[in-house]
Amino acid sequence: MSTLLALSAAAHHGHDVPMSTTLLFAAVLVALILSLALEETIHAKKSLIVGVFAVISLLLGAAMGLLPFGPVTNVFGEELNLPVYIPAIDWGVIAIILGSSLFVDVTSRSGLFTWIAIKLTKMSGGDPLRLLWLYGAMTVVFSAVLNNVTAMIIVGSLTAVSLDKLGRREKLLAFLLVEGLLTNVGGLLTLISSVPNIIVGTAAGISFVKFFVVAAPYVLVATVLTLWLGAKWNGITPLVTDEEKEEAEGLVQGFDERDGIESEGFLWFAGAMTVLFIVVIATTSVLPWVSELGMGFVALSFAVIMLIRYKSEVDRFYDAVDWDLLGFFAGLFVVINVMEHAQVLGLIGSGLEKVIGLGDVAGTGVLLIASAVFSSVTDNIPLAAMLAKILGGLGTASDSSLWWSVVFGANLGGNITPIGSASTLVAVTIMHKHKLDMSFVGFVKRASPYALAQLVLATAYVLVFLR
Q: Under a CB-based contact definition with an 8 Å cutoff, are residues 173 and 439 in contact?
């Protein structure tokens, strides 16, 4: 991604883009967002919609001389002639999604997720509210030590299994929505929980420990608030009568956590590999060699290891991969990269630079909200990188609350729309997989109240405790 940003910056310095051209591409971006909002009306998959706009963006960019062509120098000093859209795609994210999906699907065949789901369900005593809190806490923890996408895939699978076995499938949509929102809250917890954290934290010189100490109080309160609102707004209530509790307890005790386990040996192997997967993902940035290869390599490597168990029939697991989701991300990365070259994101950055000049309190609050709004409709990685450069260029102190405004805004903005975050998009995809009705507009309507509460809390936290 850093190479991509460097290429983009070089392209910007190489020529000036007329404002009319920037506004034209801004209109293309708005049209893309509107098309995704009308996805159900136009009866087209997300990957096709974004693919069409990727083609249009690339053709316009090439025709107007905005895109770099010809040889590109790699880290070895070698010149490569690649189509411009190849480096535009963040293949690390694609690899994480592909590898995690395969790893989770193969691991689930061991019965491990069913075993965990039933254990947690038994801990809840069959009480829906207690189950929501257990899964909510697990979502935050997984999002903090894994990437958000992997966390959503794992927890989403567990949720579907548990609610099906409890006979409360009607609550699945509410559970998945709350879990999707909590992935972005959990993504705030550590310096390595999300890419924007890494970009901004590195630019500001914030250590891993300091990041955790500052972010943890907010994450704890925001998690409690989100779960409380989720339970209240979706009618998830505790069991009251003795008859309900006894019935639920009896139903829970009737569950067999060993159901679906083909081999006890493979179950324990899958459990050990899952723990190792979490540990390696969490420590990828500090592991020799692995840190250079990235989390995508880790996800794919663990997927390959698990697939060895079914070496003669691995092709059946490929059917479980959400190719529409992968195609969507690939196309979205291309569109956003063209928008960078057309200086659409630069235009956004210029406006935010003026906001920063409003003063400590006003600038911090407006920057947080503005970062969230823009992150809800654009990829938060280039946005975070652009804002980090602006703050660094202004000589912003490492303890300034402006850095935290970008961190909170870039992460929480993903809870406003399903395209603002990879994990919320995965949550919607899981909803569709289970035949649950959730359109782009429907997600915005249901998620916005949660996002608003989280952003108000974040703004108050930054202004009161971090100034």
A: no
